Amino acid sequence: MSTDSTPSHFTHIDQNNQPGVVDVSEKKVSLRTATAQSIITVPDDVMAALVDGDIQTKKGPVFQTAIIAGTMAAKQTSNLIPLCHPLPLEGCKLRITPQGTNDILIECQVKVHHKTGVEMEALTGASVAALTIYDMCKAFSHNMVIRETKLIEKHGGKRDVERS
């Protein structure tokens, strides 16, 4: 749940309806953390390839590669999302866990001491890890669905967010 009300305007749009990077020059540096998740649903034959906590393909270990890709993406978020501030991430952890019969849960936790939050970095990391799993497993099947990419929590800054 958000601990503050939703802003009545878009922060990346100025009074003249023009886009721009948010001015954070007056904000205080504080610890900012965020956790995001993506879920990818895969068919039985992909889950059947899971051995010792990972899927081995001709391209290499799927989950390990997805963790590296998600980390790299989180670090490059400002190059992918036009109005994001570049942030020197101090921590980025990805966990990939099979859930139930056909779901794979990807969680990305990011932290930094800065003037702006890291939720976009966490969302980007989780998303790119899911895309990497798709790419590496498409030889098994294209019947995969990346779904439910969402922010789980963020702390620091004006608003804290927590949801399940």
| Integer-rounded radius of gyration | 17 Å
Number of helices: 4
Instruction: Give the class-level CATH name.
Output: Alpha Beta
Total DSSP E strands:
8
Strand count, sense and barrel status of the largest sheet are: 5 strands, antiparallel
User: What fold name goes in the CATH topology slot?
Assistant: Alpha-Beta Plaits
β-strand amount:
25-35%
- Which segments are poorly predicted (pLDDT under 50) over 5 or more consecutive residues? 1-6
Please estimate the helix content.
25-40%
Write up this protein.
- This protein is an alpha+beta fold and 164 residues long.
- It has a single domain, classed as Molybdopterin cofactor biosynthesis C (MoaC) domain (Alpha-Beta Plaits, 2-Layer Sandwich).
- It has helices spanning 44-48, 62-75, 77-80, 119-137; strands at 30-41, 50-51, 54-57, 60-61, 91-99, 103-114, 145-155, 161-162.
- α2 runs antiparallel to α4 (119-137).
- The longest helix is centred in the last third of the chain and has 19 residues, at 119-137.
- The radius of gyration is 17 Å and the shape is elongated.
- The model is unreliable at 1-6 (pLDDT under 50).
